[in-house]
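User: For my dataset I need records formatted as: sequence, then structure tokens, nothing else. Please produce one.
Assistant:
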Amino acid sequence: MKHSIDISIAIVTYNNSKIIKKCLNSIFKNINNTNFEIIIVDNGSSDNTVEIIENNFKNIKLIQNNKNIGFGAAHNIAIKLGRGKYHLVLNPDVIFTENSVEKLVNFMEENLDVGLVSPKIVYPDGTTQYLCKRLPCLFDLAIRRFTPRFIQNLFKKRIDYFEMRETGYNKIMEVPYLSGSIMLFRKNILAKIGGFDEDYFMYFEDADITRKISEISRAVFYPHTSVIHLWQRDSHKNIKLFFVSLISTIKYFNKWGWKIV
């Protein structure tokens, strides 16, 4: 008899050969008491990401796109295929820690008004990544992205406020803007909002979907478990990705309203 799927784990890959094996190994190592499936949607990788998956892992549903269709569009494919009561959106540069998934699922089971939850996200050295955010405005985004470090230091209190640092990241709290690196959704709530907005190729789709979830449910940060995020901040280093981010920023404010400060 087949067991029902508790959680669908969805990963979108694009040239992730250096990290995908570590991510998948951490899933199989650290999920012990939950029935899960893994769905990987590859967006036309030109490296050996697909070969690594096929040669090292079984019982993974692998979808291969012939081009990069974007983060949200690829995840929507996985959402339609997912059979779980819960749906986990996971970046390939995230490493699970012991029982982290089970703890998130248990929290959702005990809090039926929560439609989206994310754990504490840390660097490999254990320090916190401050990825919970308040709703963005143009001023905050400009300071964080376009100004040199000494200017950012002048506005440190404002940046810290945007990143919700005054909370200490040590309590359960509702968050207006959760990070797309790891998001656990209640599948029926995710279905109600229609998944990700495919107008965003990449970036700001997490801000958008958090807002949509918050309109009909609660989006919550759960600090009592953590995952490791091998964060690269590629858009800060790659001029092409910078413009992709800029376009998504414009689309976000066109949709939700332009907020200057």
